[in-house]
Write a structure and sequence with these properties.
The complex is a heterodimer of chains A (about 170) and B (about 280). Chain A is mainly alpha-helical and about 170 residues long. Helices cover about 80% and strands about 0% of the residues of chain A. In chain A, helix 1 packs antiparallel against helix 8. The termini of chain A are close together. Chain B has a domain of about 160 residues: Rod shape-determining protein MreC, domain 1 (Thrombin, subunit H, Beta Barrel). Classes of the chains: A mainly alpha (about 170), B alpha+beta (about 280). Chains A and B meet through helix 1, helix 4 and helix 5 of A and helix 1 and helix 2 of B.
């Protein structure tokens, strides 16, 4: 297999994973809410994929992810384009330059990504008066913490996909 | 830490521009944009599949974790259905009994001297050639041999041929051994009604020893002439045909029994009446 083909295959797999996370979040976890909390899988998947890619590739893939997420009718979609792109680029740069690409890093970067993407959306709602500030502590943070449960799974899946294109 | 590369900065600026554009498009128009249409159209089948899989997963979850609950619920519902079926069956039985007693009331209203003992059929004769059944009341209820068993409409079913304390055997008029003195209700000819059993639950009656010059009409009512045990005027059947008997010196009439033997459930034994 040529290197170019491997790269295309790897990114196809990553795109599939992003789509899967999106679908799971909007179908299964829109219905099944553990402890009444809405799981957020997309930022975790973006962080795990960004860890495996160069900053430019991670930023570009995150931009597309954000755009698709926005156009699919997501809440605060326009803001998500920016936050997801920034999150992807930041995760890639931090993982590549300051941290290693281990599981703990993945957990840290996923938490950061969740805070950035979902936190920004929640703050927008608070700013618009649609959400009481108290809910940031009582609902948002537990939901983000619970979403991190998926980080190890996504970490190993993206690791396997990255191996395909290595 | 390295500086943010130019490409990344361009991408971030592009993201900002796209965010502004999509935000502005959302504010300016209430319709879906082209981009939204494309993405939603492409995602719809995938979402449908995801939703279907979610439903399947939910069903599996419910199946695995809800199995015991469902089993218990199923058991309870089965028990409830059985109870309800039993109740419905009992209600139907009571309704039928009520109908029969209502019909019987008409007969007793017309014949105030008639005393009946109602008895359920508990057993039917299993032999091939006889036609008899056992009822669940006997001498304790005043039933004696030779008494006449009728339906709620006063149609003759048979004669009691054996009695015990709490049981009695009724040999029906369809049995070939049965002989009942009878008369035609209009023309007044008398004869003996005998059974000519054919098969279980089906049979014909034959009224023998009618005068050769008798004029018989189809559907003419045949009733009992009465004995010391049962009164006259009880309906036996209707004429369905006629002919000369084997000796050629008497006529016979083929009868259709008035009682419906196939659906008999309860009979009423005429235990007493005032013979004039």
């Amino acid at each position: 297999m040529s290197k170019r083909f491997k790269t295309v295959l790897r990114w196809c797999l990553f795109a599939g994973l992003l789509l899967l996370a999106m679908l799971l979040q909007t179908s299964l976890f829109a219905l099944v809410r553990p402890f009444g909390l809405q799981m957020s899988l997309l930022p975790v998947m973006v962080a795990c994929i960004a860890m495996r890619a160069a900053p430019e590739s991670a930023a570009l893939s995150s931009l597309f992810t954000g755009l698709v997420w926005c156009l699919s009718g997501a809440d605060c979609g326009s803001l998500a384009i920016v936050t997801i792109t920034v999150s992807g680029a930041a995760c890639s740069m931090l993982a590549g330059q300051l941290l290693n690409r281990g599981l703990v890093t993945a957990l840290l970067l996923s938490a950061m990504s969740l805070l950035l993407v979902d936190g920004a959306a929640a703050l927008t709602h608070v700013y618009l008066g649609a959400l009481p500030p108290m809910l940031l502590a009582t609902a948002l943070l537990p939901a983000l913490a619970l979403s991190l449960v998926f980080c190890p799974v996504f970490y190993f899946v993206t690791w396997a996909c990255a191996k395909v294109g290595a | 830490m390295k500086k943010v590369s130019k490409k990344v900065r361009i991408i971030l600026v592009a993201a900002l521009v796209l965010a502004l554009l999509t935000g502005a498009a959302g504010v300016m128009t209430s319709h879906a944009t082209v981009g939204e249409n494309v993405v939603q159209t492409l995602l719809t089948p995938l979402r449908g599949a995801a939703a279907a899989m979610t439903r399947q997963a939910e069903r599996l979850y419910n199946y695995v974790y809800g199995y015991e609950t469902l089993e218990a619920e199923n058991k309870m519902l089965r028990q409830r259905i059985a109870d309800m079926e039993q109740e419905a069956s009992r209600a139907e039985s009571l309704q039928r009994e009520n109908d029969r007693l209502n019909a019987l009331l008409d007969i007793t209203a017309q014949n105030t001297d008639y005393k009946f003992a109602g008895a359920y059929i508990t057993n039917r004769d299993g032999s091939s050639w006889g036609d008899a059944f056992t009822v669940g009341r006997g001498s304790a209820a005043g039933i004696e041999t030779g008494m006449c068993a009728v339906t709620q409409y006063g149609q003759v079913v048979g004669v009691v041929t054996e009695t015990g304390l709490n049981w009695a055997t009724v040999t029906t008029i369809l049995d070939s051994s049965s002989q009942i003195s009878a008369m035609l209700s209009v023309s007044g000819y008398t004869g003996i009604v005998q059974g000519s059993y054919q098969s279980q639950g089906q049979g014909d009656l034959r009224m023998n020893y009618l005068p050769t010059d008798s004029v018989l009409k189809n559907n003419e009512l045949v009733v009992t002439t009465g004995t010391a045990r049962y009164p006259k005027g009880l309906t036996i059947g209707y004429i369905a045909g006629a002919g000369l008997d084997e000796t050629g010196v008497a006529k016979y009439a083929a009868l259709t029994p008035a009682a419906d033997f196939s659906s008999l459930e309860e009979v009423f034994v005429l235990t007493d009446y005032q013979s004039n």
